[in-house]
Amino acid sequence: MVGLLTNNKKIKDNDKITILNQKALRNLSNIFYNSKRAHEKQAQKYWKQVEKNGFFSLFNKDYDYESIKKILDTKYQINNNYFNMITLEQLKKLAIPIDGWKIILFDGYFLPNLNSNNFGPYKIQTTNISIEFPTPIINDEIFLYLIESLAIKPILIKLPSNNETKKPLYILNITSGINNNILMNTSHYRYHLDIGSNCKSQVIEHFISIDNNPHLTGSRLTVNIGKNSKFNHIKLILENNQSKHFSYNDILAEENSEIISSGIFIGSMLLNHNDNIKLNGSGSKLILNSLSLPKNMEIINIKTYLEHNQSFCKSNQLHKIIAQDKSKAIFNGIIKVAIKAFKTDGKMTNNNLLLGKQAEINIKPQLEIYTNDVKCSHGATVGKINYEQLFYLCSRGIYINDAKYIIIIAFASEIIEIIDNKNISNYVMDIIQQRLMDV
After folding, report:
1. Whole-prediction pTM value?
2. Do 253 and 226 touch, CB atoms closer than 8 A?
3. Whether 37 contacts 43, CB under 8 Å
């Protein structure tokens, strides 16, 4: 059929991608072997996986040829001139005004002079880390291994048992770009949280660009949550519209733990976010939410993988996408229930709003259930603005554009309202309102 990508064309394009893969690997290999981490055993182990797996293929992938080409056909560098690259005045403009303990990273570097003087009950370690971080839950992602290899100083964050924190831990990750058609700055952020038993904590990850220049960001968070602990996590990826971001969260939860995790994804040209979670203790509870707002020709790819591995666990997921213009969004969610995970209660909902005639949303919710006596469900919707709602508002004297705006904001606010931090929810709502002004 005319206009469809034939097998011959796809094979030819894939051959071109193979050549670009080799070029990108040579470039990144030089970066790795010239870094201090090239002498660390753990980094070496992950770099071998980078070389083994390689990058993209056009087959069974979520990206088209042009998207892959833009990633691979670029020469990357790591910024080594991070001193004095950010002022206190700039930091005030970029940071969310939060009363909390602050960790500030610039292009992957920990900046002691801008961080909090102390971190309360948290123990922060950035050098001489001998601990083996958890192995990946999903181990076939090339960018995950890149982050593990290229992150300049992985950060170990410990919260000892029996601590109920009164303030959040705010991790601000600031990335710079290069105004250069040949080079692109790449920065990688890696931290592991070890939350002890009987704890209550809130951790906020915030990713932002310091300028409007292109850059590639990698971020990876792993969390071990002890028994009877409550963990509240907020991830904000709000970089500029020239950025590319690959993000991976792994969470392991023990008995009777409670997790609330919310992700807000706005602005990147290409954003790939992965949530991988294992409920390994009975009686654990999970709330996992996300809101994505691609516009223009941006691409957002959200993947979630959840394992219910013990009995009497409960999970509730709500993922929303608002796609404008010619943007593309992909959601792929999996809930896997193990043989001994009886009395599981798992729910996954994906609601999507198409605001552009050429916008595209692809969804694939999945259940894998290997036991009886469970209650599991998944549901997904894709649609445009409800014209009955629109008619109702207009019949009350509201102009049609204002009515559309009200409906869209109401659709998004369901996710925002779950965020248990007023400063964060107000900050995010302001960004969403600005982004939707032209709808």
Report:
1. 0.93
2. no
3. yes
**Which pairing describes strands 109-110 and 101-106: parallel, antiparallel, or unpaired?**
antiparallel
Map out the domains of the chain as residue ranges.
Answer: 82-384, 385-439
Q: Determine the Cα–Cα distance for residues 338 and 312; give it in Å rounded to an integer.
A: 12
Residue 148 phi, psi dihedral angles, 5° rounding: -60, -30
pLDDT in tens, 331-369: 999 999 999 999 999 999 999 999 989 999 999 999 999
Q: Which residues contact 369 (CB under 8 A, 6 or more apart)?
A: 337, 376
C-alpha span between 54 and 50 (Å, rounded) = 6
Q: How far is CA 376 from CA 108, 278, 337, 367, in A?
A: 40, 16, 9, 8
Provide the token pair at 124.
Answer: 């922060």
Structure tokens at 339: 């043989």
CA distances (Å), origin 32, targets 26, 35, 72, 184, 318: 10, 5, 16, 16, 38
Could you tell me the two tokens for 341? 């995970």
User: Which residue, among 263, 267, 259, has the nearest Cα to 247 in the 3D structure?
Assistant: 263
Backbone dihedral angles phi then psi of residue 147, each to the nearest 5 degrees? -60, -45
pLDDT in tens, 106-119: 999 988 888 888 99
Separation between Cα atoms, residue 315 and residue 120, nearest integer Å: 31
3-state secondary structure (DSSP) of residue 130: coil
Three-class HEC string of 360-416:
EEEEEEEEEECCCCCEEEEEEEEECCCHHHHHHHHHCCCCHHHHHHHHHHHHHHHHH
Q: How many Å is the Cα radius of gyration of the chain?
A: 22
62 by Cβ neighbours in 10 Å (0-12 / 13-18 / 19+) ranks as middle
Residue 348 near residue 335 (C-beta atoms within 8 A): yes
